[in-house]
Amino acid sequence: MLTKQTLIQTLDKLPNSFNIDELLDKLIFIEKVNEGLPQSLNGKTVSKKEAEKKLSKWLK
Asked: Which of 9, 18, 26, 58 is deepest in the core (most CB within 10 A)?
């Protein structure tokens, strides 16, 4: 989950003029990284081989 502080910091790093897609992309990226870091630290990851198997239908 994002915080107001994270949103404010993200907005401060953007140029004075930007489109909403840029902001949303950055916020989604930050949220996913914040979700993934604890998972990674707790060993909740998949190997490259497992990922390739799961993604094989899209990698054709």
From this structure: 26
User: 57 pLDDT exceeds 90?
Assistant: no
Q: Output the 3-class SS for 43-57.
A: CCCCCHHHHHHHHCC
Single pTM value for the model:
0.70
Cα–Cα dist 35/52, whole Å? 21
Which of 22, 2, 5 has its CA nearest to residue 14?
A: 22
Q: First and final CA of the chain: distance in angstroms?
A: 33
Q: Report domain extents, the chain.
A: 4-55
Cα-Cα-Cα-Cα torsion 51, 55, 56, 58, nearest 10 degrees, comes to: -160
